[in-house]
Specification:
alpha/beta; Rossmann fold; Four Helix Bundle (Hemerythrin (Met), subunit A); four-stranded parallel sheet; four-stranded antiparallel sheet; 45% helix; elongated; RNA-binding
Length: 487
RNA sequence: GGCGACGUCGCCAAGUGGCAAGGCAAGGGUCUGCAAAACCCUCACCGUGGGUUCGAUUCCCACCGUCGCCUCCA
């Protein structure tokens, strides 16, 4: 079966057929860089990371663009998020942007999220945005208000609302309307705003000194780097309205062409509130848990395992217990990988045990069939778990296993668990000078302990094991020797 | 009020018109000097009520419940 994607645009799974064979152009809405990223962001970007990795694994040439919003994203009060943070910390706006952009990449790198090919910033694409706004005005889809702001005229675009299936007249008009608004229709949205004196993030434009609306950046930058029509647009489901909807309307109105062909939206990460009711994790609610904090307690692979344990479209509820369960499941898989690599150190040459290659092939097929089904990562992980049982049986059994088979096992884990899902580390632990020395010392202690065990001096052998355990090193005795790992 | 998603074993979570993956936890074994790990065994009739069908957890309707969005949020 070939790849199918659930297209939010049509609320159905559809065979994936890129515009240009073998090539995928993809855009994902990135973060607003005014604070550290939290694990809700991790869910979205790890999810799309796996999408990109799997597409590449499947042989597609992917161009992945993910923007950074650094201007125009306003608060209820009308204040720009970036400016507010700058005022609070007595910094200039671009310092804030730089600080949190670096923080964002630091977190994503730590989580093993492959960087987008292009990470365009809104503030770096003001001319492109102005140009698009001009086109919209020319075509009669936007107007300059009496206060000098430019708005998109939703009544000029009948298909407005097609992604979220909303009829503008059905919405409760004025629910959160700004009383100062000078729009023709409550649903009209800002393309360009005239800057108040204190609004120092400002640019010249045909309509006066001001700044772009939030939505126009994605349309302008997607157009610049991916063309008028591209394959996949991704983001969090919480931005389906108004943001994604506005992107579609203004892009299709300006370019006379379909915007994105497949829309993929990721379910929200929730966190229990004080009463235990799941609530969306968000910066504004203040109930967020930063990626940096999560990484202090958990390995990146475990955080990925937690996120990928549910299908990307579904919401997940965050808790330490859930992360803990993910950790145990991950340890099971990684334990088999480690055992494989340990055996590889001393494996005999040859094809012994090569009947196992069928099992590997079957696991790969199962994995691919899950991932081809709208990137069903939980199904992919299940395939890995089932493989892991077979690997454990093989490696703990009596039959000799040759190097060829061990290498094939390792390779399967590297590709499916490493390359695609990013939950299997490349190498055990890094081999820096001090790490090598540490490893040597641990092996020395294990040798001494083996001697103590041979002498039935269990008091000493247990002492060594206990003291190593206190240092975070677990020792396991196997029939063919002792293995160890750092917790 | 409108739009959308969801409700599957103690917990997490896939899935299918024809006897319900996987993980965690739990109980019982095997192995071990003792552990640990691993392996084996045990552990669900799919929110409620209707309907369609030879047959529904899977399709349709209603209801109950939960969440998201309705111009701050990945």
């Amino acid at each position: 079966m070939a790849l199918e994607i659930y297209n939010v645009l049509h609320r159905a799974k559809e065979p994936f057929e890129p515009l240009h064979e073998g090539k995928v152009n993809m855009y994902v809405c990135g973060p607003t860089v005014y604070d550290h990223a939290h694990i809700g962001h991790a869910k979205t970007y790890v999810s799309f990371d796996v999408v990109v990795r799997y597409l590449r694994y499947s042989g597609y040439d992917v161009l992945y663009v993910q923007n950074l919003t650094d201007v125009g994203h306003l608060l209820d009060t009308g204040e720009d998020r970036i400016l507010k943070k700058a005022r609070q910390t007595q910094a200039v706006p671009m310092q804030i942007v730089e600080t949190y952009t670096r923080s964002y990449f630091e977190d994503m790198d730590a989580l093993g999220v492959v960087r987008p090919d292009i990470s365009p910033r809104a503030s770096g694409h003001i001319p492109e945005q102005i140009k698009m706004i001009e086109r919209l005005i020319e075509k009669g889809h936007a107007y300059v208000s009496k206060d000098g702001n430019v708005y998109f005229d939703v009544t000029s675009w009948p298909s407005f609302g097609k992604l979220s299936n909303r009829q503008i007249e059905d919405q409760q008009a004025g629910v959160r309307e700004d009383v100062r608004e000078d729009k023709r229709h409550p649903a009209d949205f800002a393309l360009w705003k005239i800057a108040e004196p204190e609004h120092i993030l400002r640019w010249d434009s045909p309509w006066g000194v001001g700044y772009p609306g939030w939505h126009i950046e994605c349309s302008a930058m997607a157009h610049k780097y991916l063309g008028t029509t591209f394959d996949i647009h991704g983001g969090g489901i919480d931005n389906i309205f108004p943001h994604n909807e506005c992107e579609i309307a203004q892009s299709e109105a300006a370019n006379d062409a379909e915007f994105a062909r497949y829309w993929m939206l990721v379910g929200t990460l929730m966190v229990p509130d004080e009463f235990g009711i799941p609530t969306k994790m968000s910066k504004s609610l203040g109930n967020f848990y930063t990626i940096k904090d999560a990484l202090k307690l958990h390995r990146p692979e475990v955080i990925r395992m937690f996120i990928l344990g549910a299908h990307y479209r579904n919401p997940i509820v965050f808790s330490e217990e859930a992360l803990d369960a993910a950790r145990r499941g991950w340890e099971r898989i990684y334990g088999a990988v480690r055992l494989t690599r340990e055996k590889l150190r001393t494996a005999p040459e040859g094809e012994a045990g090569n009947a196992f290659l069928d099992t590997l092939e079957q696991a790969r097929r199962q994995f691919i069939s899950a991932m081809d089904d709208d990137f069903n990562a939980p199904g992919g992980i299940a395939a890995l778990h089932e493989l892991t049982r077979e690997v454990n049986i093989l490696l703990n059994g009596e039959q000799p296993v040759g190097r060829a088979v061990l290498e094939a096992i390792d390779q399967t884990y590297r590709e499916l668990g490493g390359q695609v899902l990013g939950i299997v580390p490349e190498e055990a632990e890094s081999a820096s000078g001090s790490a090598e020395r540490e490893e040597g010392l641990i092996r020395l202690l294990i040798e001494l302990r083996a001697q103590a065990r041979a002498d039935k001096n269990f008091q000493l052998s247990d002492l060594i094991r206990d003291r190593l355990s206190e240092l975070g090193i677990t020792v396991e005795d196997r029939p063919d020797g002792t293995v160890w790992r750092i917790n």
